[in-house]
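Run log, item B.
One chain of 259 residues. Sequence copied directly from the ordering sheet:
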Amino acid sequence: MTEFELAQTETPGRFQFNWVSEVLFHAQRAFAKITAQNRAVWLTPLLILTLTTLVRVVAAGWVRQNFAVIGEVPLPENFQYFTPEQQAQFTQAMQATQGPVFVYVFPALSGLLGIWLGWLLVGGLLHLVMTMLGGRGDTMAAMNLVAWASLPFALRDVVRVAALVVSRQLITSPGLSGFAPASPSGVMAYLVAWLPLIDLYLIWHIALLVVGVRAGSSLSRGKAIGGATLTVVVILALAALVSTLVARLGSLTIIRPFF
């Protein structure tokens, strides 16, 4: 009996925490099992992501409130290049957002919305792209695949929590945002909005998507890589667009995450 046939005969329970290490370190074997399922098995990774996101928000909120207690306001990178009006606006905004609602509730809601809405968008778009490329998977298989392929982001949350607790400093330059030029505008501001979204965990996520697509369809390696990469690039483009629009509405050139 082949590995694929063994995966089909296995009936997983409601939660599959024993799959987590397999997905991260033995991806090919894990996704052969996951893509063979004819039922929803996406709950476990999304619950893990939800938990790690909430822990990260609490850790960041704790750091922010420590700054508030001692009267220090952590400044974003390149703050010295902001105009006086932007500096004053930032300071006023920080003073007005020290309550629990702004420190914990809003970041938690934003993080959870990003997880669940992002999962729906990536899963739906991946299924559409793979169908156009000749794949035969169904929507449920795509949703299962995307959920489990998102586990690197949970590991990223764990790393960020450790950094917050150890350093007691907010993470103001996630991803590649440290390479952002000072005071970008126009198209450059939109391109800069991509930088915080790109890191090693994103590349790991794309790699897992490729492995999962290959395990669950007859697509060639080139089509699997192209389809998975295109899906993620489209989602990143939308996220960067939203980030840029919010930055403009807030009269700040660059969004600097406070958590």
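Observations after the first pass:
- Residues 27-249 form one domain.
- The chain has one domain: 27-249.
Flagged for discussion on Thursday.
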